[in-house]
Amino acid sequence: MSATREEVLRDENLIEYLQEIARDSAFLHGVLMRTKETPNSPEVASYAPFTLFPTRVPSAVFTQVLTVQTHFNRLVDRVSQNPSFLEESLASTIKVDDFTARLFNIYKQVKEEGWAQAIVLGLNRSDYMLDQSPDGGTSLKQIEINTIAASFGGLASQTPDVHRHILKVANLLEEQNRILDNNPAAGLARGLAKAWELYGSESAVVMFLVEDLQRNIYDHRYIENELWKKNVPVIRRRFEDVCRTGHLDQRRRLFVDSKEIAIVYFRNGYMPQNYTSEQSWDARLMMERSLAVKCPDISTHLAGTKKVQQELAPAGVLERFFPDEPETVAQIRATFAGLYTLDMGEEGDKTVAMALANPDQYVLKPQREGGGK
Amino acid sequence: MSATREEVLRDENLIEYLQEIARDSAFLHGVLMRTKETPNSPEVASYAPFTLFPTRVPSAVFTQVLTVQTHFNRLVDRVSQNPSFLEESLASTIKVDDFTARLFNIYKQVKEEGWAQAIVLGLNRSDYMLDQSPDGGTSLKQIEINTIAASFGGLASQTPDVHRHILKVANLLEEQNRILDNNPAAGLARGLAKAWELYGSESAVVMFLVEDLQRNIYDHRYIENELWKKNVPVIRRRFEDVCRTGHLDQRRRLFVDSKEIAIVYFRNGYMPQNYTSEQSWDARLMMERSLAVKCPDISTHLAGTKKVQQELAPAGVLERFFPDEPETVAQIRATFAGLYTLDMGEEGDKTVAMALANPDQYVLKPQREGGGK
């Protein structure tokens, strides 16, 4: 007979035993990262952080997420295509944030020159918290949307099997049966393969632009392997490699190490420290100017900044992007947690006062990708 | 167009690149071992040794292996059931080899008392070399048969996918298509599950008797996970655990940590250093005396010693075990490489002289399992 989670949680010995089972299962199923100590060693790996039991998500909330994700993707796309909104939203940020200013500068240069490539690939990850209201109801609050280097789709492909095994050994058979399959690596690869096909050159390759420290390489490899299965060739290169060997030809085709690049898939370039030299910035500009399909392009990267997300929050703004879709607007807005400016001035002062009054009710997030508290 | 292996082998850069791909692929597919430095840490792993490309095996030889394996399994079974043959074969060995003598002593005690359990499970691994004759022909030479703790069936389940990926990236597509699926972990688990079923108690468990240093734990885990899928419960215990908490009841049922043991699956106990105390030997005797199904039992363990294998080599011996099957005898004998005694006396002296005359033609193997050169 199947146990209940509450019974299992009370049994300390079992929990300890399940931790052993869980760690080895994560290894066997490839839920891996390289270690902090040796982030570039191909010889050792550890497991990526994961929960012992899967998180329970009410089915209504799950359905809601699926629906709203399409809306978010369309919203990001429309924002990225709206120069005046991007410019207005980021005007105050680029005055004080050198990183965003440099990205914005690349955006302006490419826009003025004219986009070489009409196709853009967006692989976005939208992050949520499950908000428990005092009456016990659960609702979905979006934390952020990641439009560049959204990670863990590869490892997430493997976690259902890890959880299934843990629940099996814990004799939580009913829960085990409820775990859904999920293969985001295959989905991400489908997007990349489609863009590669649209680029239209059999000999051109997908280039993963990767960090110098490749701790999360296994997450990438899942997507890469799915691409190989589809006969789409992949290379991995760092900014430095692009600086050293990259160039554009007269048609603005991008070549790196003499290979024509069909797609630049940015798994790097979202933090100031990713740009270790002026050459890195030159390389970014070159890639953005190129005929290669970018995932994401510079507009989509900017559309994912927190400042833009904050500017979408006030009444009337979403309506500008979906003028004839009140339903879409309502569904997106339902997931908004409050986003507040810290700009100097009256509105920023109000935010500060509000946060100081109830500090445990807010989180402070940096403007750019890559974490923050 | 598909490349050839010779082309690939000439391209040093490609080979280097394939090594990277191969290592990461081994990680993703769970071809893992714990590291030498931290053999018991659940936090880090490395990959198990493997070849970059799969070994080519002529199809005739492959078919031969499949056929002869059944014969070898039957031979081991018949030898294990033949006390006088075991006794005669090992008489000289037990005089000089304390380890084999102690095992033989357990065998004698249990035999005198009478076997509690008629069912024995054999999970044997037969190792071969492909012998190239001067005329270019390939033939199969058996190195040894492992009747206890035969390892790497779990990891071998995963290597076809690793090789497929390497060959894909190397553009060796024709070779890639020729790789066969292989799932020995599932096969081994089927054997264990069948023995568990025959033991006939739903609440009894399969006990993996494991080493103190569990470097090869992932290999075990594959078999364990296949058992869980079949709803066969598994525990892992060391000699020390059996010493501390193991006992037999009046019906000679074995209990460890208050759990009834349906199967003792020996992944330990094949080398003298596995027995760290007299208590380990007591525990081995207790397990052998018990009603639990042993994999292998002490008779089968002894049947796998090199000495016994050597005693099977002379003309007329195989015929004693397969009196009406000349075809079986011929097929087994065709795989025999020479096995020569080093016993004191005329025959041993001849071996020594022969080996000294052509030292690169022979390997020296220890009497017991666990490697040797």
Automatic annotation (TrEMBL), chains A, B:
* Entry's Gene Ontology molecular function annotations: ATP binding; glutathione binding; glutathione synthase activity; magnesium ion binding
Q: Specify the Glutathione synthase substrate-binding domain's residue ranges.
A: 204-303
Q: Which organism is it from?
A: Triplophysa rosa (Cave loach)
Q: Which NCBIfam families match?
A: glut_syn_euk
Any one of the GO CC terms: cytosol
Please identify the protein, giving its name as recorded: Glutathione synthetase
- Positions contributing to substrate binding: 125
Q: Where does ATP bind?
A: 144, 306
Q: In which pathway does it act?
A: Sulfur metabolism; glutathione biosynthesis; glutathione from L-cysteine and L-glutamate: step 2/2
Binding partners and assembly: Homodimer.
Write down the top EC class of this protein: ligase
Q: How many cofactor units bind, and how?
A: Binds 1 Mg(2+) ion per subunit.
Q: Which UniProt key words apply to this protein?
A: ATP-binding, Glutathione biosynthesis, Ligase, Magnesium, Metal-binding, Nucleotide-binding
Enzyme Commission (EC) number: 6.3.2.3
SUPFAM superfamilies attached to this UniProt entry: Glutathione synthetase ATP-binding domain-like, PreATP-grasp domain
